[in-house]
Amino acid sequence: MGFTSTDDMILQMTSNGKADSHILQKTLVAAGVAGHWQHLLTSPGNIPAATFGGAELTFIPTDNTWSEGAIPIADQTSPATKHLTAAGASIIAAAGAPWFVQFVDLVGYAKATTTNVSTTGTKAITMTPIAATASNVDRYPNGEGLRLCVAAIAAMGANAPTMQINYLNQAGAAKATLAGCVSTASATNGTILNSGNAANKYGPFLPLAAGDTGVSDIVSLVWGGTAHASGSVAVLLCKPLGMPVPLPATGLFNVFDYVNTLPSMPRLKNGANLTALVYNTAATTSGGTFFASLDYAYGG
Amino acid sequence: MGFNGVREWANAVDAGRVHLTTFRKTVASASTVANDFVDYTYFAGNPPANFYASAPLEAAQVESIRGIHLPDVDNQFIKSITAMSAAAGATNTTNQNQRHTLCDYLLYYPFVDTDAVGEQQDMIQTVSIPRYTSGQIMCVAQSASSAVGSFTVSYTNQDGVSGRTSQLTYTKVVSGGGTLVSSTTNAVSGSQPFLQLQAGDTEARSIESVTMVSAGGGLMALVIVKPLIHFVTTQECRRTTTGNLESYGAATYSESVIQRRPVEIKRGAVVGVVGLGNAGSLASSVLVGTLQTIWSN
């Protein structure tokens, strides 16, 4: 259980020590593309850059024990529910401001490389559907609340094909993301390819079919039009956590109070693999520094 | 229906009934005038520009792709809006202090000739107003205009009474499309976002005709919108590049229920932003923001 009252939250944090903080630091691996969202997974720092290991076109679950690096979050078996109480972020870069930072729990990914990117058509993805067990991969039962995006995990080649993801929704029904969404040609490593500053670009997440509230299974990635000349991508399955943190200027550290929002205190599920997505209004300088602070507490 | 209480409102996010989207619009390079309203939908970015490009004087609905993307669901409400304004350059400060109105774009009549003095330009009613029964009328420049003209609009009011006549309204001299050309009713200075209607009327359902009293030297679209919520951006976001390198900027954030009333966005809404800056030209500045919505069962 969580907190029974504000008094209980104060008690748990001050008397019982059931609170902790973490810092996420990244050095941006490449320039951020103007008007695009960017993930930080391939950027070095603390935690280190991910390499997206695992088999091609196969869903790889990630949690906070992910071998490629994850923020450690307290006892992962505790029945006490953990909640974000505040989060802040800062970017230090000569260009790119203003930014937004959206924290997400990365539930898993499926990568596509070489000819699975440089050719069009349907790329079937192997995945055991998310269920409603106590397993970490099922931390959002039946995929409720999960969202999809297509992330560059290497520099992308020329051309901007269309992209669509076939998926099973939270009820297990076969659905597809909005048709017509286009990728970004020659995007830098880290770019969320479905986002952007033009028609048929949607960010940070691909629009789900009308009325859908989650994703339980990634069935396939469908490229149309003219394929990327090269590149590697990962379909990310994420749970957005809390409000986006706006960063108006370089060097400014902006903290968001998650206790006094509604709904308040986004829950960190057992196994949560916290990372962040960044929106670049202008082209963010390569090598810029990203910092985030995450405060959480738990009761019970 | 809406939400039955705090619990249901709060649970919507965990239940996945939430949508987050960004918008980024760059004002065109033509200068705008301090205290003139601009229609951000007219400018490039995401969503793409909305030039009101369809058959002249014929009623049309704005394509959904021209609006900020929203899920196609009922009972959807604004949960939060966050906005920032990026300066056109390292030393630009003229895009600070803007007021904004998020609007649902309902119906428009394009390419009204503001030079057609004395001629009654009749509108063609091919489609009717969607989602609401009436809204406010904006006058959006579709070209540069060289003179201060004046005009009246004949319309059907919120109760369905036709033949109503707006107050005499002045147009503005503008450098390009996208500026709202409706001035105050007694002078060419000052601005108002929406046309002043006949006494006693609150909104318009359709527009029958426009009569130019004096020439405005341009083209405009008459657009019926439903204002949803107001917000502001304050300091421009920029970084100096010489001398002491300094950064400036501010973000504004508003959250429904806690700070603002929850505002419904109707299913199929085409949502965009009308803004006004009071510090100078907004040319080439960038309005960027996030819009988060949630919906009930």
Question: What features would you highlight for this structure?
Answer:
heterodimer, A: 300 residues, mainly beta, 6-stranded antiparallel β-sheet, 2 helices, 16 strands, B: 297 residues, 5-stranded antiparallel β-sheet, 3% helix, globular
Strand content of chain B: 35-45%
Radius of gyration of chain B: 19 Å
Quantity of strands of chain B, as a count: 18
| Greatest chain-chain contact | A-B, 51 and 47 residues
Terminal CA distance of chain A reads: 5 Å
Largest sheet of chain B: 6 strands, antiparallel
Decide which structural class fits the backbone of chain A: mainly beta
Oligomer: heterodimer
Q: Give the distance, in angstroms, between the N- and C-terminal Cα atoms of chain B.
A: 8 Å
Helical content band of chain B:
under 10%
Largest sheet of chain A: 6 strands, antiparallel
Helix content of chain A: under 10%
Arithmetic mean of pLDDT of chain A: 94
Write a brief structural summary.
The complex is a heterodimer of chains A (300) and B (297). By secondary structure, chain A is mainly beta.
Give the topology, please.
The complex is a heterodimer of chains A (300) and B (297).
Chain A (H helix, E strand, L loop, with lengths): L5 H9 L4 E9 L8 E4 L5 E2 L12 E3 L20 E11 L6 E14 L2 H4 L2 E4 L22 E6 L9 E8 L4 E3 L38 E10 L8 E15 L6 E4 L9 E2 L5 E7 L8 E10 L2
Antiparallel strand pairs in A: 1-3, 1-16, 2-15, 4-6, 5-13, 5-14, 5-16, 6-12, 6-15, 7-11, 8-12, 9-10, 9-11
Chain B lengths: L5 H9 L3 E9 L10 E3 L4 E3 L29 E11 L11 E16 L6 E3 L13 E6 L8 E8 L6 E2 L3 E2 L33 E11 L4 E15 L4 E2 L7 E2 L3 E4 L8 E2 L5 E7 L8 E10 L2
Antiparallel strand pairs in B: 1-3, 1-18, 2-17, 4-15, 4-16, 4-18, 5-12, 5-17, 6-11, 7-12, 8-9, 8-10, 8-11, 13-14
